[in-house]
Every structure is written in C-alpha cells, then in structure tokens.
Amino acid sequence: MRIGQAILIALSLAVLTASTVAAGCGGQTAERVERRELVLATTTSVQDTGLLDGWIPLFEARYPYSVKVIAVGSGQAMEMGRNGECDVMLVHSPEDEERMVGEGFAVNRRPVMHNRFAIVGPPEDPAGVAASSTAAEAMRKIASSGSKFVSRGDGSGTHVKELELWGRADVLPTGGRYMESGKGMGDTLRIASEEGAYTLTDKGTFLKLRDGLTLSALFEEDEALYNYYHVMEVNPERWPDVNAEGARAFSDFVTGTEAQEFLRDFGVEEYGERLFFPDALPEGDLGQGCREVDSCERRSALLGSGRRKVRTAHGKR
Over the Cα atoms of the chain, what is R_g? Predict the structure, then answer.
C-alpha cells in the first residue's frame, strides 16, 4: 500500500511538473507571438522599389508589432491619417505634411530620406527634354511640342510636384495630349510607356521598373526635382485609439542607424546607384545630414504662386 501510494504521489508530481512547464512554455510562446498591428500608410514608391521588403522584417524582428502596409499616393495616405485610419505615415509631399502637422492631425514629423524626381519619356525624345537647362524649361518643351504627358492625377506627392513644375513653366496642361492615370507610379509609368508619352516619376521607382519600359530618364539635374520623404505619426490626442507606441517605434526605426545604413547600399548592386539617400544620419556621413526638416527643403523652395495657380485652374487640392 505504501509502495502504491508512493507511486501515485510520484506520478502526480510528475504530471503537475509537466503541466507547469508546459503552461510556462505556452505562456512564453503566447507572449512571443502576440503582436499588435501597426498600420503604415505610405506612398507607392517605397512599396514599388522594394524598400519596405527590406525594412519591415528588420523592424518586426526588433519590435512586437505586425506592420500592415497601405501603399497609396501621399495625399491619400495623409487623408487616412486625418481620419484616424492609420497609425503612422511615410510620405513625400512637404507642404501638405506641414499643413497636417499645423492643423494638429500629425506629430513628430521627421526627415527620413530623399531621392530625385525625373522627367522620363520616349528614348527618341521628340520634345527635346534632355537638352533643357531647368525642369520648367523641360515642361514647356513638352507642352509646346504637343507631346503626350501622363499625370498621376491622384493628389500624390508626385502629382503635387508635377503641378508645381507646370506652374514654374507658366503652363496650364489641358487637352487630349494630357492624360491622368489616377493610378500609382508603377502603373503610370507603364501607361506612359505604352502611349509613347512623358511623365514625372521618382527615380527609385523608375530604376526598379525600367527594364520593362520603353522609356528613358531624360532630365533630373535640377534642385527643383529633389524629392524628400518624412515620417509622421497620427496625433493620439485626435484619435486616442491609434497605436501611438507602435507609431513612435516605427518613426524611431526609420530614422535610426540600422534603417538609415540600409539605404546606403539599397539598389547599388542591382541598379548601379542608390534608390534613396539617408537624411537622418549625422552630418558628414553618406547621407545629406538633413537632421532638421527645413534644412532639407530650403534648396527646393517649394510651392510658389505658380503651383497654386495651376492647382486652382485644375480645380483640385
């Protein structure tokens, strides 16, 4: 009887110990896989170039968040932020970003990176864009030659820049030769290629897709074509349910050393040049050292009266 009782006690202790260990392991596993969703609204260029394919696994390996990416034009991304439909934004429409922060819908706006816009078009360049001295001159040549031009037409950062350039050129683009795709950058490039048309694109997306396009990069050497990207968090005082901690973690990540150093080599092996240049590295590094937002944008002096004139004429924001 004592032996039987001893065996029963031993078995009970073994089962209890195994259950405790299993519960402990299960608790650790549950804690390890429990992740909060973080909604990133961003411009199509960072998706089309493949940058997020490199960045997001690095971020998710470090932080307990699962990133849901919604890639749209910058205008749509910021509208999502205004409506509390995302947590953080990575966009490239500086004046609209500043307005959003000023109106209290976004906080903690920080420079992340830049590249250039480029005017691309048919390799034979019927408008003579490649011989232009400024982006405004290039746009005037396109208009005066009667060449086709495909606009994003979607309120994106690229569309805003295009309208600014038409304003600088003192041209109001209209007529059947001026088409609006209403689509992202990749689709707009494909339409321009099919139509034998010109368009404005960020250089990174063009480099990523150029092998499948009958387009050449014809003009990009103008400071007016600098393209600056910033990260902003949706203001939790406006929308208390946003994932404010996750948004701050993502902002810290994309402006941190790991993500910024990733940019220095991104695209070089495949395309022979970087697709983006880091703007949150210390002065003197391979980036431009744009630690203050204003210092990155001062050279471009964006959005003068010409841009506003064209936007009013189009009847669009």
Answer: 25
Q: What is the DSSP string of 251-271?
A: HHHHTSHHHHHHHHHTTHHHH
Q: What is the pLDDT of residues 122-172, one digit of tens each?
A: 999 999 999 999 999 999 999 999 999 999 999 999 999 999 999 999 999
Q: Which residues pair with 72 in a beta bridge?
A: 43
Residue by residue, DSSP assigns 165-231 as: HHHHHT----STTEEE--S-HHHHHHHHHHHT-BEEEEHHHHHHHGGG-S-EEEE--SGGGEEEEEE
Distance (Å, whole) CA 43 – CA 72: 5
Give the tens place of pLDDT for each residue, 207-217: 999 999 999 99
Is the Cβ–Cβ distance between 112 and 125 less than 8 Å? no
What the block records as the tokens of 215 is: 């387009």
Q: For residue 231, what are its two tokens?
A: 């990260």
Strands 277-278 and 106-121: antiparallel
Could you tell me how many helices (H) and strands (E) the chain has, helices first? 14, 10
Write out pLDDT tens, residues 20-66.
434 444 433 334 446 799 999 999 999 999 999 999 999 999 999 99
Would you call 213 helix, strand, or coil by DSSP? coil
Burial annotation 173-199 (CB, 10 A radius, 16+ → b, else e): beeebbbbbebbbbebbbbbbebebbb
